[in-house]
Design brief:
Helix 8 packs across helix 9. By secondary structure, the protein is α+β, with helices and mostly antiparallel strands. The strands form 3 sheets. It has a 6-stranded mixed sheet. Strands 5-11-10 form a 3-stranded antiparallel sheet. Helices cover about 45% and strands about 10% of the residues. The protein has 15 helices and 11 strands. Belongs to the cytochrome P450 family.
Length: about 425
């Protein structure tokens, strides 16, 4: 993961402006109410703010909607290959963000024609997913999960429903059965590799995921289907075994955790906001509005690391030096007062940047597939448990301590027990 390949690491330029006045991206206040930090950064620094990542590693956080759109639209200036970073000499081997920035031969870090080739394969594979069949499968998965706790009258939805459903739906799309011991082990290892808790071994879990994906590829060589793995495997672009494994893991990671948090954040909104309380149990429209509002105000992917400046340039009045890391502040850009001057975010439109933009955005039709999974999960739960309520006061809900993903630590609920 730390391979810096053919692009030699550069020394941090002396007097790099990101070192001066950088704001640490962390702290309890930020984790619970990041919008306050975005506002204060914007007030003090404007659309592009100097920040400090773990270990006080300097970077730039793009807060402005138009500035972020400019970065993502100009790959030749703000590129994805992290081997350009001028901070590699200062990065320890156990740096917490290494899994996200350490170069890997995946579509995530590919550029130019190579990225177009790899992303094109993924796009065609996603286009082959029947969205009606996906909705049926998600409803079946949701029914199975709800049946496992419906008789108790209470549940913690993050662990028994939202993450489990999103993961099983994702595995079904890549061609694995969404139940069974093998799938359960895969689900457990993916959780650890993507969101390790204390005592977990994410490196070992990631290795087991890779081995399981290799077995899946071997199975699909013999018995291809209409799933993502089969389409990618037999695509004329001719992906290598390593490319297939890396890009399938990328697809899984992009589909699972953000979608799970999208479901959870939407349920939180529906259960705590009086605008939805009256009509939520029967209104498909209110669920759709809630899903979209969450993408504007509580988007699952808050910040994305990142882009690396190809040469010295200017952005938002800042001097960005070659090799500087630029973090995409998706959540901050979505609430930029320049696009919402009266402070009212119009949740009725979908011009948010929650799926990023430009060539490296979530490939079409990934957002539509995520919407199918999230909408089916929310609607099925509310249909099966129509008197669902929070088991704690809304202010007692806490967010997970992450500046990258926006999701609750837990979502405890109560309801009338249902005997199936």
């Amino acid at each position: 993961m730390t391979d810096t390949g053919s692009l030699p690491p550069q020394e941090a330029p002396p007097g790099c402006p990101a070192h001066a006045g950088g704001v640490r991206l962390g702290g309890l206040e930020y984790q619970q109410t990041p919008s306050q930090l975005y506002r204060s950064l914007r007030r003090e620094h404007g659309a592009v703010a100097p920040v400090l990542l773990d270990g006080d590693i300097p970077a730039w956080l793009v807060l402005g909607y138009s500035e972020l759109s400019y970065v993502t639209a100009n790959d030749e200036l703000f590129a994805r290959d992290s081997r350009r970073w001028n901070q590699w000499a200062n990065i320890p081997e156990d740096w917490p963000l290494l899994p996200f920035v350490g170069y890997q031969p995946s579509v995530l870090f590919a550029e130019g024609e190579e990225h177009q080739r790899r992303a094109g394969v993924i796009t065609e594979a996603l286009e082959g997913i029947d969205q009606f069949q996906l909705a049926r499968e998600c409803r079946q998965i949701a029914d199975q999960l709800i049946a496992s706790f419906a008789g108790s009258g209470e549940a913690e939805l993050m662990s028994v429903y939202t993450h489990e459903l999103a993961m099983r739906a994702t595995l079904a799309m890549i061609g694995m059965p969404h139940s069974g011991d093998d799938t359960q082990r895969m689900v457990a290892d993916l959780r650890v590799s993507l969101d390790a808790a204390e005592g977990d071994d994410p490196v070992a879990a990631y290795a087991r995921v890779g081995e399981r994906i290799q077995r899946l590829i071997a199975d699909k060589r013999e018995r291809p289907g209409s799933d993502i793995t089969s389409v990618m495997l037999h695509h004329p672009a001719g992906l290598s075994e390593e490319e297939l494994v890396q890009d399938l893991i990328t697809v899984i990671a992009a589909a699972q955790q953000p979608t799970a948090n999208w479901i959870c954040n939407t349920l939180r909104l529906l259960l705590t906001d009086e605008r939805f309380a009256v009509s939520v149990s029967g209104g498909r429209l209110s669920v759709g509005e809630a899903l979209n509002e969450v993408l504007w105000l509580d988007t699952p992917t808050q910040n994305f690391i990142g882009r690396w400046a190809v040469r010295d340039t200017q952005l938002g009045g800042r001097r960005i030096q070659a090799g500087d890391c630029v973090v995409l502040g998706l959540a901050a850009a979505n609430t930029d007062p320049q696009i919402w001057p009266e402070g009212h975010v119009g949740a009725e439109n979908a011009a948010h940047l929650s799926f990023s933009s430009g060539e490296h955005r979530c490939p079409f039709p990934a957002p539509q597939l995520a919407d199918v999974v999230a909408r089916t999960a929310v609607e099925t739960l509310l249909e099966r448990l129509p008197d669902l309520v929070l088991a704690v006061a809304p202010e007692e809900l806490t967010w997970r301590p992450s500046i990258w993903m926006r999701g609750l630590a837990s979502l405890p609920v109560e309801f009338t027990p249902v005997v199936h």
